[in-house]
Specification:
The complex is a heterodimer. Chain A is mainly alpha-helical. Chain A is built from six helices and two strands; from the N terminus they run βαβααααα. Chain A has helices at 10-14, 23-61, 64-84, 91-106, 112-130, 138-156; strands spanning 3-5, 16-20. Helix content of chain B is 33%, strand content 21%. In chain B, helix 2 runs parallel beside helix 3. The chains are: A mainly alpha, B alpha/beta.
């Protein structure tokens, strides 16, 4: 049985129209706030990238069971980076992290070709960060994303070792 | 043109990433929301929401112990008025499965990370101006879902699989 209820609008009761900041003012405040958080974020990002590098180095040598754990660790780190890097001026890093998450998510079984693709993504992220590439990286950024995509598709086109 | 004065609003933020919490708290405060309580642990957030009864909950999707969908569902199963608390789910996942799961949990909106300030602000204003009726069925408790199939996917209504900024549910 479907029941339809009109809830009280507590938000509307608390909000006062035409007496608050407009979007432009809010954006100015946010930009100032991001400026203050930027240094903290840079440090947090460097720590995440170091951890990503360590996990990737271990993955390159890992056995099947350990690889699964490391891939989970790499996913968590990439997930964190994709969610925040874009807000702090690193959209290219965020896009590569997003692509890395997608590669790990799609992997159904341990596959050395997929591990190689993962390592390429991590390498690309470290290179972008080392070059302090802010923004989308222009044409080089687009080329990098396209090459990672091509590698991913090539690995995906192989027969599934888990099938 | 002035916007809404949101200084009287109380919000609860839930994200296991401390940095994301800092960022979102700063954004909500920039909008004028002074009381923003932050939780890394969704279970603690749920207890807080039941007692503190905020005007708004903004939660991450992927979290250990209790993800954003389960947190939303748990809130919707509470007694009124807690069950009516507007919930915005922020998700790093924009694939169909995750969006449908968040939608089915009773979230008011599912927003893709990285969320833009404009998008978050627009959704909060929508919650103020468009108080959707709640629907209670054996399988769903939450705001009435409106999907206008006549409209082609656009910035406000895209297919769940798209790399969407906003997913209108």
């Amino acid at each position: 049985m479907k029941q339809v209820i009109q809830p009280p609008n507590r938000l509307a009761e608390a909000a006062v129209k035409d007496h608050g900041p407009n979007l432009e003012t809010i954006l100015q405040r946010v930009n100032a706030g991001i400026g203050k958080l930027q240094q903290d974020y840079e440090e947090a990002l460097q720590a995440e990238l170091r951890a990503l590098g360590v996990a990737a180095d271990l993955l390159a040598e890992a056995e099947r069971g350990e690889a699964k754990r490391l891939l989970g660790e790499l996913f968590d780190l990439a997930h964190e980076i994709r969610g925040l890097a874009g807000s702090f001026g690193y959209p290219l890093l965020s896009k590569i992290a997003n692509a890395l998450c997608a590669v790990i998510e799609r992997q159904s079984a341990f596959d050395s070709a997929v591990v190689a693709v993962v390592l390429h993504h991590v390498g690309a992220m470290r290179a972008v960060a080392a070059g302090s590439v802010k923004g989308d990286g222009g044409s080089q950024g687009a080329e990098l994303l396209a090459s990672l995509q091509a590698l991913t598709e090539k690995a995906a086109a192989r027969p599934d070792p888990g099938a | 043109m002035p916007g809404y004065d949101l200084t009287r609003l109380n919000a609860v933020l839930v994200d296991d990433s401390p940095f994301m919490l800092k960022l979102l708290q700063m954004i909500l405060r920039s909008m004028g929301i002074r009381s923003v309580r932050c939780f890394r642990d969704p279970v603690s957030a749920l207890i807080e929401v039941k007692t503190f009864q905020p005007h708004l909950v903004v939660t991450d999707m992927l979290m250990p112990t209790l993800d954003g969908s389960k947190l939303t569902r748990a809130l919707r199963e509470e007694a009124a008025p807690v069950c009516f608390t507007p919930v915005l789910v922020l998700s790093g996942f924009t694939d169909k499965e995750h969006v449908i799961r968040a939608s089915n949990s009773g979230a008011n909106y599912v927003l893709a990370k990285p969320v833009s300030v404009e998008t978050l602000h627009r959704r909060i204003i929508s919650l103020i101006e468009d108080n959707r009726p709640f629907v209670r069925t054996p399988s769903y408790i939450g705001p009435e879902r409106r999907i206008d199939k006549r409209r082609p996917p656009g910035p406000e209504q895209r297919s769940p699989a798209a790399d969407a900024d906003v997913l209108y549910i």
